[in-house]
């Protein structure tokens, strides 16, 4: 009688499966509900399997957050690419990519920015991609300041304020905290344009949001 092969994964597939399982558990149960044993069970592998990739649950959280920032950076980079030497369009496209990341994958968005990762400096890949992502935002702000699209001042501080405005908007949308009275009257894009317009010195064109 032939022996049925056990469920197997490509080396990278198991890691991705564990990350995906961890995202779901963290988003629904919080960090206290996350264990490598639970992640293994959800992924359909042995209890020992996760330890081939992660020493403990903080290492898994680091991988989840790192992957989130990578996806965000790639989404922003792809959105910005068509608008070389057009700082306003880059700002709009990059900001909209951030909003779309949050709305399209709310679980990963919430976990990436949850702050549950301890001792961040122990995870250089996370530190590097999070820094690169913020630096990219700052560079867009600086380009817009040079073009008199955004007011002057420390670009890092302005970048944090724009980020905070958009993050708050996404969080409110994800959690269903915006009144239907508003959502029935205005689209997400219209609310986004209004939010970004709080910072720009020129009108924010809406045609770019059709991309």
Q: What's the short story on this structure?
A:
By secondary structure, the protein is mostly helical. The chain is 63% helix and 0% strand. Helix 1 (11-29) packs across helix 3, helix 1 packs across helix 5 (106-112) and helix 4 packs antiparallel against helix 6.
Which labels suit this protein?
single chain, 211 residues, mainly alpha, Arc Repressor Mutant, subunit A, Tetracycline Repressor, domain 2, 2 domains, 0% strand, disordered N terminus
Report the uncertain regions.
Answer: 1-11
The CATH architecture of the largest domain is Orthogonal Bundle
CATH topology of the largest domain: Tetracycline Repressor, domain 2
- Structural category: mainly alpha
Summarize the helix and strand pattern as letters: HHHHHHHHH
The CATH class of the largest domain, by name, is Mainly Alpha
In DSSP terms, counting alpha (H) and pi (I) runs of 4 or more, how many helices? 9
Report the span from N to C terminus: 57 Å
Q: Assembly state here?
A: single chain
Mean pLDDT: 89
Task: Specify Rg, calculated over alpha carbons.
Answer: 20 Å
Task: Work out the count of structural domains.
Answer: 2
Shape: globular
Please identify which CATH superfamily of the largest domain we are dealing with.
Answer: Tetracycline Repressor, domain 2
Classify the helix fraction into a percent range: 55-70%
Tell me the total number of β-strands: 0
Query: Proportion of β residues?
Result: under 5%
Largest sheet: none
């Amino acid at each position: 009688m032939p022996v049925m092969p056990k469920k197997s994964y490509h080396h990278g597939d198991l890691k991705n499966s564990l990350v995906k399982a961890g995202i779901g558990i963290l988003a629904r149960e919080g960090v206290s509900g996350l264990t490598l044993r639970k992640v293994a069970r959800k992924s359909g592998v042995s209890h020992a399997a996760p330890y081939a990739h992660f020493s403990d649950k903080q290492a898994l959280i680091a991988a989840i957050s790192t992957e989130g920032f990578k996806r965000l950076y790639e989404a922003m980079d792809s959105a910005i690419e068509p608008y070389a030497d057009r700082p306003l369009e880059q700002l709009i496209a990059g900001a909209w990519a951030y909003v779309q990341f949050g709305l399209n994958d709310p679980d990963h968005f919430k976990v990436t920015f949850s702050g549950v990762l301890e001792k961040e400096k122990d995870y250089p890949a996370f530190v590097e991609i999070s820094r690169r992502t913020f630096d990219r935002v700052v560079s867009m702000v600086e380009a817009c300041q040079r073009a008199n699209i955004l007011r002057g001042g420390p670009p890092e501080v302005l970048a944090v304020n724009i980020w905070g405005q958009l993050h708050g908007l996404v969080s409110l949308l994800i959690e269903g905290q915006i009144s239907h009275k508003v959502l029935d009257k205005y689209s997400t894009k219209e609310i986004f344009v209004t939010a970004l317009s709080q910072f720009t010195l020129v009108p924010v064109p809406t045609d770019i949001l059709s991309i």
